[in-house]
Amino acid sequence: MVCNEIYERASVRFYKDEPIDDKIEELIKAAIRAPTASMLENWFFVVFKSEGVRKKLHELILKGHIEYYGKSKEKKLRKKFEDGMFFAPCYIGVFVEKTGILDEKYSQLELIWAIESAAMAIQNMMLKATELKLGTCYIGVANFPDVEKEIKKMAGLENFFLVGLISIGYPGEEITPRKRKKRVEEITKWV
Q: Which domain holds residue 166?
């Protein structure tokens, strides 16, 4: 059986103003079905859904975009954000504990494994969202130091590592998966 959600998933940047509360638990249940290195399961999910918190996240995401794209694009970015870009009815922050590592000798490697496990959980969550007709977007600028610091503070998880912030909601735009730039042959080596 083919998982069609893999081919239907696309990043969504505009959302309808409709709550998704009844779907959040399903998303997290799907997330924790991901593989987890050494069975550590040291991922942690924070659901940001109150209006004030979402507005603060939206401001932080804009701040990250301005930092990434530069001041020359600030006016254009502000307009898109005023139009609702990345303002979702829900955001889920995926964190990993920096503590609970099995062996101090391998702590750096185990942190990498935890981040990889959380990334696979994020993918599961995004595929489940696609199945539920929800849109998602992985927001990379959430990891800019000033932005991440504020998100961790809002979550009360200053000693955790933020793996990703995902915007989630019913799409307010048509979802069209983009073709990949490179063909399988260009990125695969057989040995």
A: 12-174
User: Please, are residues 64 and 72 in contact by the beta-carbon 8 Å criterion?
Assistant: no
Which strands sit side by side in the sheet containing 43-48, from one edge to the other?
43-48, 90-97, 160-169, 135-138
**What is the crossing angle of helices 107-131 and 21-31, to 10°?**
140
E-state strands within the chain? 43-48, 90-97, 135-138, 160-169
Domain-embedded: residue 189: no
Q: What is the pLDDT along the chain (191 residues), one digit of tens a residue?
A: 557 888 889 999 999 999 999 999 999 999 999 998 878 788 999 999 999 999 999 999 999 999 999 999 999 999 999 999 999 999 999 999 876 566 678 778 888 899 999 999 999 999 999 999 999 999 999 999 999 999 999 999 988 999 999 999 999 988 888 888 999 999 998 99
CATH number at residue 40: 3.40.109.10
Position 1 in a domain: no
In a domain, 34, yes or no: yes
Q: How many domains does the chain have?
A: 1
Q: Which two tokens stand for residue 57?
A: 């996240």
Token pair of 131, please? 């199945």
| Residue 44 located in a structural domain | yes
**Contact by Cβ (8 Å): 50, 125:** no
